[in-house]
Specification:
Elements lengths: L3 E5 L3 H12 L3 E5 L3 H8 L10 H8 L10 E4 L2 H7 L3 E4 L15 H10 L8 E4 L7 H12 L5 E4 L9 H6 L4 E4 L3 H10 L1 H6 L3 E4 L1 H32 L3 H9 L20 H14 L7 H24 L8 E5 L14 H11 L3 E5 L4 H7 L4 E2 L3 H5 L4 E4 L4 H4 L3 H7 L4 E4 L6 H6 L3 E4 L6
This protein binds uridine-5'-diphosphate-glucuronic acid.
The site of uridine-5'-diphosphate-glucuronic acid (UGA) has 21 residues, from α10.
Protein name: UDP-glucose 6-dehydrogenase
EC number: 1.1.1.22
Organism: Streptomyces pacificus
Length: about 450
């Protein structure tokens, strides 16, 4: 009989994981405490923008015509108990604590507290949330105390990228499982049999290593981005071109091209808070010195946002007062509607606070941006955002922005000055249409 699987927490991670588990042939119950989220998912609607996820849900959510019926959602812990899952994935989020670097474990702790007395004997609980190292050991203790006999814990970090969540979940580039016994490993090999058969490496570790793999992977990615952004600063000072530099060093296979895109830096719900939580945890463990470089990674990253504000101020003649600024992009990266710690919105907000009239347009992030920054103006299209603008800021590299017609925009802008915060527009094309094009870490033309 196919395994029965539950997924607790249905954000980007959980909703995708639940749908992917149904796709792999398991019977799945997703649980979330937010009724609106559950209602949307149960109707086959995705409460956020994630390419391909709605199609996947449509193929499996019970009650949708032609679906496999293998996937259901609930807010009820009693229903979860009744369902009698063999494997329970905990996918709730671990945001940064207010006013602190450490991450907030409240949702993970609450999920484990509700789950422990409701799992059946012999079931496996699998943590997927990004947690401070040492959490799995502590939570195993909690299960030993409050769950029935024979319930095991495993830690199975998730490496999916927003915008590619479905692909990354169904075809992961590696599967990492932290276990303290053969039984958990065996069950997880059964759960992931399809990707393993496809060639995904299956790495078995202890609990702390599995937890550390996740935070160190994100720290490495953040470091790589801040490295190239530091090079952008030097290029700006020395008259070099960071895009060419990245291309040239990237040809060295040991370095690689990926994650060397200089610009206004990283944001989102993961990289910024993960490096901070990692520093906080290392401090608690007495290993803070090992991670002091992450402080520098963080500050290089935050400096990029300030630098973009400075470039914009310079472009409008030294003060934002009475000027109009068009901002193209609100999400922290393209193909997502996520605006958490978005560099684009941060820059827009700073300029607004300094007296500029900021008009934002984003293909998918408008609703979330409005909620976070209701005082900014929002336009329905790039053209409307640019109308009357003294400067145009390109801050999230959506394909739609690369396909804009600079000549048409030039006809509605007040001044033809564009600042490319993502080094993603075709500078030559914009210049040809009469724009002053400036990018980060690149020489002025
Ligand atoms: C990141 C990791 O890439 C995933 O592997 C991980 O699973 C996830 O966090 C998580 O912990 O859940 P994600 O937050 O979706 O994924 O976004 P990324 O694609 O890593 O991009 C993060 C930020 O870095 C974005 O703001 C992006 O614009 C920026 N970035 C990325 C650059 O500025 N330059 C680059 O070269 C690449």
């Amino acid at each position: 009989m196919a395994l029965k699987i539950t997924v607790i927490g249905t954000g980007y991670l959980g909703a995708t994981h639940a749908a992917a588990m149904a796709e792999l042939g398991f019977e799945v119950l997703g649980l979330d405490v937010v009724p609106e989220k559950v209602a949307a998912l149960a109707a086959g609607r995705v409460p956020m923008y994630e390419p391909g996820l709605e199609e996947l849900l449509g193929r499996h959510v019970a009650g949708i015509g032609g679906s496999s019926g293998r996937l259901r959602f609930t807010t009820s812990w009693d229903e979860l108990e009744h369902f009698g899952g063999d494997v329970h994935f905990v996918c709730v989020n671990t945001p940064q604590k207010h006013g602190e670097y450490a991450c907030d474990m409240a949702y993970v702790d609450a999920a484990f507290a509700s789950l422990a007395p409701r799992v059946k004997g012999g079931a496996l609980v699998v943590g997927k949330s990004t947690v401070p190292v040492g959490s799995a050991g502590r939570l195993a203790g909690l299960l030993a105390e409050h769950a029935p006999e024979g319930v095991d814990l495993a830690w199975n970090p998730e490496f999916l990228r927003e915008g590619f969540a479905v692909r990354d979940t169904l075809h992961p580039d590696r599967i990492v499982v932290g276990v303290d016994g053969d039984r958990a490993e065996k069950l997880l090999r059964e759960v992931y049999a399809a990707p393993i058969a496809e060639g995904s490496p299956f790495v078995v570790t202890d609990f702390p290593t599995a937890e550390l793999v996740k935070t160190s992977a994100n720290s490495f990615l953040a470091t790589k981005i801040s490295f190239i952004n530091a090079m952008a600063e030097v290029c700006e000072a020395a008259g070099g071109d960071v895009v060419k530099l990245a291309e040239a060093i990237g040809h060295d296979e040991r370095i690689g091209r990926k994650f060397l895109r200089a610009g206004i830096g990283f944001g989102g719900g993961c990289l910024p808070k993960d490096i901070r939580a990692f520093m906080a945890r290392a401090g608690e463990l007495g290993a803070d010195q090992a991670l002091t470089f992450l402080r520098e990674v963080d500050s290089i990253n935050m400096r990029r946002r300030g630098h973009m504000v400075e470039l914009a101020r310079e472009a409008v003649g030294g003060s934002f007062l009475g000027t109009r600024v068009a901002v193209l992009g609100a999400t922290f990266k393209p193909d997502s509607d996520d605006v958490r710690d978005s560099p684009a919105l941060n820059v827009a907000g700073q300029i607004h606070l300094q007296g500029g009239q900021v008009t934002v347009y984003d293909p998918k992030g408008m609703d979330n941006a409005r909620l976070l920054f209701p005082t900014l103006r929002y336009a329905d299209s790039a053209l409307e955002a640019v109308r009357g603008a003294d400067v145009v800021l390109h801050l999230t590299e959506w394909r739609e922005f690369r396909e804009l017609d600079p000549a048409a925009l030039g006809r509605v802008a007040s001044h033809r000055v564009v600042l490319d915060g993502r080094n993603a527009l075709d500078g030559a094309e914009w210049r040809e249409a009469g724009w002053t094009y400036r990018a980060m870490g690149r020489p002025r033309a």
